[in-house]
Design goal:
The chain is mainly α and 182 residues long. The chain is 55% helix and 5% strand. It has helices at 8-27, 29-36, 48-56, 69-73, 79-94, 104-109, 111-128, 134-141, 171-181; strands at residues 146-149, 152-155, 160-161. Strands 1-2-3 form a three-stranded antiparallel sheet, with no helix packed on it. Helix 5 (79-94) packs antiparallel against helix 7. The chain starts with 7 loop residues before the first helix and ends with a helix.
């Protein structure tokens, strides 16, 4: 359903689904280690680039300088929830990999990345104490299941990835520059 046809309650649920799923990807060190490093893994979701894009590009407002101000104003989350992710968010915003953004082994070995993952896990634990919706708890704690169909990837949560081009170094920087123009 197009965003302009959604009710505020549907937009609220959709925003939280995107947000919690993106936080789960940052906190899931096991999936990062197994899937990001798998040379046979073709789904771009399992990469640093997509992890960053799911959080900063897919979740509205988080790419802005004060990323949680607008969602708080709109009632998408509580102040306690925003406080729970504040340290993680600040570290993720500031992170610059010490290598090419497609170098999963280099990123996973970076102590700064490991600190971001640890902060995401801490935020995940703090949010679990605040959530009471079973669906939101699943989104925050379990990775979505992905299936490939006709060279595209579809998740159990309705997300899809339709690769337009092979993975290319420098893509995250180009995306960030494009977002700043808007």
């Amino acid at each position: 359903m197009p965003l302009h046809e959604m009710t505020d309650a549907e937009i609220h649920r959709f925003w939280r689904q995107l947000w919690l799923t993106a936080l789960q990807a940052f906190a899931d060190s096991e999936t990062q280690r197994v899937q990001w490093l798998d040379p046979n893994q073709r789904n771009p979701h399992f990469s640093f680039v997509e992890c960053m894009a799911c959080y900063f590009n897919n979740v509205p407002y988080l790419w802005e300088e004060d990323g949680y101000r607008k969602p708080l104003e709109l009632g998408r989350l509580t102040q306690a929830e925003a406080n729970s992710v504040a340290e993680f968010h600040a570290l993720a915003v500031a992170y610059r990999p010490p290598c090419d953004e497609w170098d999963a082994a280099g990123i996973l070995a970076d102590p700064a990345w490991q600190k971001i993952v640890a902060c995401a896990q801490q935020a995940q634990r703090a949010l679990l104490a605040l959530l009471d919706d079973p669906n939101e708890i699943v989104m925050l704690t379990q990775a979505p299941q992905w299936q490939e169909r006709q060279s595209s990837y579809f998740s159990s949560r309705g997300q899809s990835i339709i690769p337009a081009a092979p993975q290319r170094p420098g893509m995250l920087g180009r995306i960030a520059r494009w977002l700043r123009r808007g």
